[in-house]
């Protein structure tokens, strides 16, 4: 966990990624499996029957009881036994984003189910922590008393007070980040568990309203968090971040308008960042809004969204060393932001570089840096270099993921892993006894904290594998969360699909299958879904380039093949990212234009649309014949 957070500065961070196929050198599938497994070691509450980290046991079983609320569950943030709401919510948001972008690759590696379980462990807790629309519990336990003790979570004797925000004691940053987590997770579960997805989205709506209506920093209400997770950036970045995720999850225009109307005043278009993490979300917001712009969804907000876009590109260029101000790196090439848990910034920034590279590839664009344009593959290559450094390609030949490779940290700053498992020796370990018997022990941890990404080396690539060296050897959930997506991408490659199309997270079945490439625009007519009485054919009639983006005009011919008059036609159209002419929209479907009430036998009607993607999916929902 972190204590004193860095000041936000007005410059970007940038990362690069490589070619659109699987990479050699490291076993990214193995690293992905291990990085997900780490979350099982961080679980609080009643552990499930399929728990794979078997040296852990139940803990925190009375959490929330003194406050009259059930707060059993959730995650311990790092090497301690406190549940901090802000970093936990960011962790869930980033795990969800990883699946949203690279769920297909996780399916191919057989890890999608485990990743979704990791998200649900967090969202189940958030549902409990949000018992009323304007109440959210944001911390269980106290960092000061917790740090006084060195105990297994199963032996905890420290204070488990529950701290909340409400209308009188607001916390917009905490509520908005939790809304973002719930909204992003609702996308993940939309197909496999639609009822749960709807429940998550309902909580997200309420939490966003709470955050926006009752403004304030959460650490002014939950003051015990200030020493550990102080909100230095304030709450404007989280409000924009939550709005972006709610728009992504709901397609509700209100949240798109919120981003457009508040982008300038809340800093979304103004801050050029040098970091992205649990505190400062601006670079993440800018990346998401740039995606909306590339998808052609900005509408009247296009000028504002272009300013978000410019700041996203500045962040990326800075990571590559091609901006007016660039991110610092170690001699070995690792992004370096601060001494304490620097690796969190490496994984978060690398994730943004990875997805942005794929967005650019899908839009056939390039990165616009100060000196020149940069190919998307260069961003991916840079992100890969950061992950490879983390996994052992560095001056020390040290893997900073526990359990990966042969040379990894053995004395991790983590209470659970450093004390013998309660299943091996159930004898109670008292508060201070743990320091004397286990913390100062100059030996490897009795329990391997598989998959944990520790804080990492200093500015000169130096690292001391010592338990009391918490700046370098303490892991954190938010170090791992963005890494899931990058590892899935590096292991599974690009897959040939358009990263700007609407997301459908596959069901979590461990089916190994090669993703099918997205269809490309064709000059010849292509049949759409139709019935025996109605045929639908669409074809691309023209294309043109504008500001580096290719736009296509599609013509669709609907023909009544029956011998009767066609009435009350309803068409379903998905994957449409631009304007459409020649139909009337009603709810979620499209019908005859206002000047046409029916279509005689053998006759046809035409409508057209324009967007910068492959053909939309068009099918017949319903109709009548008279």
Structural class assignment: alpha+beta
State the end-to-end distance: 69 Å
Number of strands: 15
Report the C-alpha radius of gyration, rounded. 25 Å
Strand content: 5-15%
Structural write-up:
This protein is an alpha+beta fold. 37% of the residues lie in helices and 13% in strands. It contains 18 helices and 15 strands. The chain has helices spanning 28-41, 85-109, 112-129, 143-148, 172-188, 194-213, 218-221, 226-229, 236-250, 253-262, 282-294, 302-319, 343-362, 376-390, 415-418, 433-439, 470-473, 477-492; strands spanning 83-84, 135-140, 162-166, 367-368, 373-374, 526-527, 534-546, 549-560, 566-574, 580-581, 584-586, 589-591, 598-599, 604-611, 617-625. The strands form five sheets. It has a five-stranded antiparallel β-sheet, with no helix packed on it. Helix 2 runs parallel beside helix 5, helix 5 runs antiparallel to helix 6 (194-213) and helix 11 (282-294) packs parallel to helix 13 (343-362). The chain is globular, with a radius of gyration of 25 Å. Mean pLDDT is 90; it is low at 2-24 and 510-531.
């Amino acid at each position: 966990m972190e204590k004193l957070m860095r000041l936000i500065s007005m410059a970007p961070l940038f990362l690069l990624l490589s070619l659109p196929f699987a990479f050699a050198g490291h076993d990214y599938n193995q690293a992905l499996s291990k990085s997900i497994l780490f979350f099982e070691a961080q679980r609080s509450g009643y552990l499930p029957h399929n728990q794979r980290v078997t040296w852990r046991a139940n803990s925190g079983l009375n959490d929330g009881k003194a406050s009259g609320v059930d707060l059993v569950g959730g995650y311990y943030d790092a090497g301690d036994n406190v549940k901090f709401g802000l970093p936990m919510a960011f962790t869930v948001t980033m795990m969800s984003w990883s699946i949203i972008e690279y769920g297909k690759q996780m399916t191919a590696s057989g890890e999608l189910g485990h990743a979704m379980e990791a998200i649900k462990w967090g969202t189940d807790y958030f549902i409990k922590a949000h018992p009323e629309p304007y109440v959210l519990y944001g911390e269980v336990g106290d960092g000061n008393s917790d740090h006084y003790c060195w105990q297994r979570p199963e032996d905890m004797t420290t204070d488990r007070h529950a701290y909340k925000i409400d209308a009188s004691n607001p916390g917009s940053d905490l509520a908005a980040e939790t809304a973002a987590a719930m909204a992003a997770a609702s996308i993940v579960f939309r197909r496999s568990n639609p009822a749960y997805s709807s429940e998550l989205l309902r909580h997200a709506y309420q939490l966003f309203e709470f955050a926006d209506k009752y403004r304030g920093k959460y650490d002014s209400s939950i003051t015990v968090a200030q020493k550990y997770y102080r909100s230095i950036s304030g709450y404007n970045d989280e409000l924009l971040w939550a709005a972006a995720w709610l728009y992504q999850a709901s397609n509700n225009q209100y949240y798109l308008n919120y981003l457009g109307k508040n982008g300038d005043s809340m800093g979304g278009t103004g801050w050029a960042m040098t970091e992205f993490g649990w505190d400062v979300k601006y670079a993440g917001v800018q990346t998401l809004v740039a995606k909306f712009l590339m998808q052609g969804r900005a509408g009247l907000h296009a000028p504002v969204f272009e300013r978000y876009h410019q700041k996203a590109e500045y962040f990326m260029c800075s990571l590559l060393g091609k901006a007016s101000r660039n991110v610092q790196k170690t001699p070995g090439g690792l992004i370096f932001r601060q001494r304490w848990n620097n690796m969190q910034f490496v994984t978060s920034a690398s994730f943004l570089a990875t997805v942005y590279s794929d967005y650019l590839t899908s839009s056939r664009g390039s990165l616009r840096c100060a000196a020149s344009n940069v190919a998307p593959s260069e961003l991916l290559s840079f992100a890969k270099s950061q992950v490879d450094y983390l996994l052992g390609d560095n001056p020390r030949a040290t893997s900073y993921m526990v359990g990966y490779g042969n040379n990894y940290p053995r004395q991790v700053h983590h209470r659970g892993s450093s004390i013998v498992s309660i299943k091996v020796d159930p004898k109670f370990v008292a508060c201070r006894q743990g320091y004397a018997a286990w913390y100062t022990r100059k030996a490897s941890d009795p329990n391997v904290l598989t998959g944990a990404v520790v804080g990492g080396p200093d500015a000169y690539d130096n690292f001391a594998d010592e338990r009391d060296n918490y700046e370098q050897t303490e892991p954190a959930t938010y170090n791992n969360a963005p890494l899931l997506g990058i590892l899935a991408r590096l292991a599974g490659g690009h897959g040939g699909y358009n990263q700007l199309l609407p997301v459908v997270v596959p069901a979590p079945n461990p089916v190994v299958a090669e993703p099918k490439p997205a269809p490309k625009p064709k000059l010849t007519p292509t049949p759409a879904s139709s019935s025996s009485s109605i045929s639908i054919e669409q074809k691309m009639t023209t294309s043109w380039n504008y500001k580096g983006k290719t736009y296509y005009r599609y013509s669709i011919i609907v023909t009544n093949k029956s011998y009767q008059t066609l009435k009350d036609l309803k068409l379903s159209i998905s994957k449409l990212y631009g304007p459409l002419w020649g139909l009337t929209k009603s709810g979620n479907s499209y019908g005859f234009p206002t000047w046409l009430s029916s279509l005689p036998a053998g006759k046809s009607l035409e409508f057209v649309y324009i967007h910068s993607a492959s053909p939309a999916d068009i099918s017949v929902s319903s109709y009548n014949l008279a």
